[in-house]
Amino acid sequence: MRNWPLFDLSITTPLLELRLPSLDDLDELADRATEGVHEAGFMPFFFPWTDAEPAERARSTLQYHFRAWGSLAPEKWSIDFVVVYDGQIVGTQGITATSFAVTREVGTGSWLGQRFQGKGIGTEMRRAVLHLAFAGLGARYATTEAFEDNNPSLAVTRKLGYQEDGITVHDRQGRPAVTRRFRLAREEWAESPGFEIHNLAACLPLLGLPG
């Protein structure tokens, strides 16, 4: 799309393709949300969007991406990729920033359909957006945060070399819950072979960077 080059942006890895979703991609992503993202009785998200009926989870998945498209600006942006594995949409991986041209700092967030977990996909999709951040956008830092009982997310974070950066206490469904914050500096990032960014240059002005 000539006037929205982000739709041409993608990242490929040995296992995955991350791309801005088409409407059909979003429909398939919504199917993953209806199938389930985590075990019952556990809430890994700050906003408990998965605590809903399957049809409502599907709608909220679509609406989240529509809002991200509509609110993207150079001063504050969120790029939310769908993750393609073996020809299927299996989850979503986001990268966000505020005043990136000044801060050179990004955050990440993701979810993966429950039946696709435990295959190394979560680690590789995080590696992909770190490659975009550091190799493509020139970030200095990447941050992430997860509840201290979200062991899969914490395992990915530690595997990729992040350093602990403090804690935050949240109201999680009416109860206090601690999250652990992490930070990865560019100097501590290990580039992985076989990761490629496609069609980034035309997107840079939308992210507050020179084209």
UniProtKB/TrEMBL annotation:
List GO molecular-function terms, semicolon-separated.
protein N-terminal-serine acetyltransferase activity; protein-N-terminal-alanine acetyltransferase activity
Task: Kindly state which keywords UniProt assigns to this record, in alphabetical order.
Answer: Transferase
Q: Where is the N-acetyltransferase domain?
A: 16-185
> InterPro entries from the entry?
Acyl_CoA_acyltransferase (IPR016181), GNAT_dom (IPR000182), Ribosomal_N-acetyltransferase (IPR051908)
Instruction: List cellular component terms (GO).
Output: cytoplasm
The answer to whether keyword Transferase applies is yes
Q: Which domain of life is it from?
A: Bacteria
Determine if RNA-binding is one of this entry's keywords: no
Database matches in PROSITE patterns: GNAT (PS51186)
Q: Which Pfam families match?
A: Acetyltransf_3
Q: What name has this protein been given in UniProt?
A: N-acetyltransferase
